[in-house]
Write a structure and sequence with these properties.
Chains A, B: Its cofactor is NAD(+); Co(2+). The structure is a homodimer. With about 375 residues, the first copy, chain A, is an alpha/beta fold. Chain A has 17 helices and eleven strands. In chain A, helix 8 crosses helix 11. Strand 1 of chain A pairs antiparallel with strand 1 of chain B, so a sheet runs across the interface.
Amino acid sequence: MSNRFNSIQSEFQISYRYEVFFTKHLFAVNNLVLCDFFNLKEQEGTKKKVLVVVDDGILLHQKNIREAIQTYFETNVTSVQLVKNILTIPGGENAKNQNEFWELVSSAISEYGIDRHSYVMAIGGGAFLDMVGFATAVSHRGIRLIRIPTTVLSQNDSGVGVKNSINYLGKKNFLGTFAPPVAVFNDSSFLVSLDERDWRSGIAEAVKVSLIKEETFFRWIESNVQSLVNRDIGVMEQLVFDCARLHIEHIRSGDPFEFGSSRPLDFGHWFAHKLEYLSNFSIRHGEAVAVGIALDSIYSFLCGDLEEKEYLRILRLLLGLGFTLNFPILLEKGKENLEIALEEFREHLGGKLTLLMLDGIGKPKEVYTMDHSILMSAFDIMVNFR
Amino acid sequence: MSNRFNSIQSEFQISYRYEVFFTKHLFAVNNLVLCDFFNLKEQEGTKKKVLVVVDDGILLHQKNIREAIQTYFETNVTSVQLVKNILTIPGGENAKNQNEFWELVSSAISEYGIDRHSYVMAIGGGAFLDMVGFATAVSHRGIRLIRIPTTVLSQNDSGVGVKNSINYLGKKNFLGTFAPPVAVFNDSSFLVSLDERDWRSGIAEAVKVSLIKEETFFRWIESNVQSLVNRDIGVMEQLVFDCARLHIEHIRSGDPFEFGSSRPLDFGHWFAHKLEYLSNFSIRHGEAVAVGIALDSIYSFLCGDLEEKEYLRILRLLLGLGFTLNFPILLEKGKENLEIALEEFREHLGGKLTLLMLDGIGKPKEVYTMDHSILMSAFDIMVNFR
C-alpha cells in the first residue's frame, strides 16, 4: 500500500460559552434577567421550546413555583414557548440512583418535541441538576441546558461547572458527560429556606477554593464567620459569587474536560468521597469536604509545607463555621479506609495519582504520593482537635 | 444588589485530535501500526489497560480473531495491558435497540477497572461502533475509544466521525453524544468477506461526499464502477481513503458538534432515514442514501440548479453500482411519507430546516424549504428511471 494511504489527522477545537447570572426572585414578573436571556437568543430561526423540570423538594417551600413560572412566561417571554406540563421529580442523591428518573426527563424531551436548539430548564439541588444534566446531554446528543441551582453547594460549585452524572452499578457518578450549560441563574432567594446543614455545607467549597486560589478570599471568610453562622443573606451572596467566580476561572483556564491527570479543584476531596460513602450519604458532601480539607491541611503541616499557625487558622475556621471533624463513623472506620480511598480516587480519575496539598494559604502544591505514617498522624490530630 | 453581582462569563475551547490509520491485517504480528500507536502514548504515567469488544458477526469470517489479538499484544505491545477477556456482542441495528448491550460494555469497564486514561477498542460495523461508543463516552465521563470499523460504510463514514448513539423510545439515535475517538484503524482485509449488499452499500456515502465536495472524486468513481462491481480491493481502498479524507476535512473545518442548523454532510439523508424505517431496516443505510441522492439530484434538476446531463450522470452511476431506486416499499408508501420525512428530519436536528441540494456536481447549495409539487415530480421520475 502506498504512503498516501498511511493516515489522516483530524484536529479541531470546540468553543463553549455560558453566562452565570446572580439575581433574586428570578420568577418575579418584574425581574427581566431570564426574559432578556431568551430574547437575546430569539433571532436564531425557529421558535424554541422550554421544558421545565423542578426538584420536588422545592415545592415544600415554594409550593406555587409552577404557577409563578407559568405567569412569568405568559407575562414576559414571547421569544420561546414554555411546555405547559412542568415536571416535578425527586431530588437528592436518590435522583441519581435510579434510571427511572433520568429516563423521565428523556421521555419528556421526546414527548414534547424538545430539539437540540430548544431548552431544558432544571431547578434544584446539585444531585438533581447532575441527573437532569445527564438526561439532557445524551438526548439528541445534547439539548441546551439552563441550570437554576437552589442550594449553596450547587450555586457556588457543581451548578456553575461543566459536568453531569448519575450513579450506576453502585458507583457514584459512574455514568456522565462533560457538557457545559448554556446559562446558569443563581437566585439567592432559594437559599433563605435551606435547613442549617445545607446552608453550612456549601461553605466548605468556598473555604476549599480560597485555600488553593486566593488568600484574600480566605481572610474574607474568616472575618465573616459570625455573619455566615447568623445566616446573613447578603454575606452569603458575596460568598457564593466569589466561590463561583474562582471555580469558573479555574475551569476556563485549566483542563475543563479533565483529559489530563491533574485535578486541582479536588483539594480535600479524595477522602471526602469515601467518607460520604462510609456514612451511607448521611454525611453531606460539604460536611465531608470540610473533613477532607482539615486532613490535608494537617498533612501539609506535618510535611513541613504549611506553617503551624496556618493549619490552625484553617481548622479554627472550619469549627467556627460549625463543621464537625470527629464524626463517629470517622473514629470507627476512618483510618482503615485511608489507603482504600486514595486508590479509589486514583481509579475514578484515571491515570497517575495526582493530589493537591498546601504550601501556604492560597498556595497549592501537586503531590503524587502520600506518606502512610504521616497520614495516620494527621488523622489522629484531626479527630482530636478541639 | 450591586452591579458586581450581575454575571460571570465562562468561555473556553476544547481541543481534539485523532488519527485515522489505513492498513491491512492489523493484528498480523509483523504489522506494527497498532503497536506503534500504543508505544507513542506510553510516556503518560501509569500503565493503561485495553478492553477489546468485538462485533460477533466478525467471528463468522475470522473465528480466531480473539486469539490473534491476544498473540499480537503478547508479542508486540508492552506499553499497555490487554484485558484477557475479549467481549463479543451482537452487531447490526439490534445492538442499538436494547439497553442490555451497551450496559454489557459499561459493566465490563467497571469490572475490569478501565479508567479514563485507559482504552476500549471496538471492532465491528457502524451500528456496533455507535453502541460501544455510547457506552464508552458516558462511562467515567469518557473512556478513550479506539475504533476498528469493519465495513465500507463505517470505514469511510461513521467510523471516522465524532458521533455515537443508541436507539431509544423507538427513535433512531435518540440517545448519544459527540465524542471523538482517540484513533481509528481502517483495515481493508475486513472488507474482503463482506456480502455484496454491504460491499455496495458503503459506496453510496462516497458518491454523496463527492457530489457535495469534490467533482474529481465523482469522476474517479464513475471511471471505476466496473472495478468496484468486480470487488477490486485496491480500488475500494482508494475509495475508502478519499471518502474518509473528505468526511474528516468536512468535520474539522465545519461545526463538528453540530451546534448550528446546517448539516452539509447530510445530503440525500432526509428521506433516507425515513426509507430505512419504512422498510423496517431491511433496506440498508447506504441503499437508502442512494435513493436519497437520486431524489435530491432530480429535485435539483427540476429546480433549474443542476443540468440535465449532470443528474443523468448521477442516476446512471448509482444504477451502474447496482443500487435500486424503485424498492416496492417506495412505490407503496414513499410519496405519502415525503412531507413527514422532512418534518422528522427538521425535528431531529433541531432549529430551522436546512437541507443541501446541488448547484452542480461538487457544488452544494443550502435550501430551507422544498416545493411539494416539484418533489412529487422528482419522486415519479426516480421510481420510473431505467
